Automatic annotation (TrEMBL):
PANTHER family: COMPLEMENT C3, MACROGLOBULIN / COMPLEMENT. SUPFAM superfamilies: Terpenoid cyclases/Protein prenyltransferases (SSF48239). Pfam families: TED_complement (PF07678). GO terms for cellular component: extracellular space. Residues 2-71, 74-113 form the Alpha-macroglobulin-like TED domain. The gene is c3_11. It comes from Liparis tanakae. This is Complement C3. InterPro entries: A2M/Complement_sys, Alpha-macroglobulin_TED, Terpenoid_cyclase/PrenylTrfase.
Amino acid sequence: MANSLVTVKSEHICDSVKFLTLHTQQPNGVFVEIGRIIHGEMIGDVLGADTDASMTAFCLIALQESRSLCSATVDEFEKARPVVRWFNKQQNVGGGYGSTQATMIVYQAVAEYWASPKEPEYDLNVDIMFPGMSRPERYNFNRENHYTTRTTKMVSLYYALPKEKESDCTIFNLTVELTEGNVVHSLSFCSFVVISPACFCHVPYLMRNK
């Protein structure tokens, strides 16, 4: 940040952060250029094929580096989280983001974010219920274990996949992976894996066979 080298009023920096989050950030987290740059050759590939990734990376770096200076006056730093999620979806095979310049900028931006994130505590309770079970299997996800894979077994007819029950919680994501097990009495035992990448709500979850 320039304020570590020269005198810059904090309100100038914080007003710029407000402008970025209010006027240039899209609903999916990406930042777009809303102005017109005449001499585009001065900024390398930021106006090339990787415009979105480069622009978003620059904005994420600015958000994170201004956090300590503007956190008291700008309540927009939570918007950095969808930016990181958007980056994860843009990654190419092999880990890059198009050009070398865009890739390096993105890695710097994500590193800035993970160096000082202020995320809420993870505390999610998941109940999984199958037909024939007397009580559900209960799992708790918290900051210490939310990346740990859980596995349980269920009885399923051949080619009968379970259907997820609809939930009103819009910030809970659950991935279910079915793997065929041993065949016993014309039934196959299938195990499924519960993966909770980033959960912030208490949601009972019901799996049923068809």
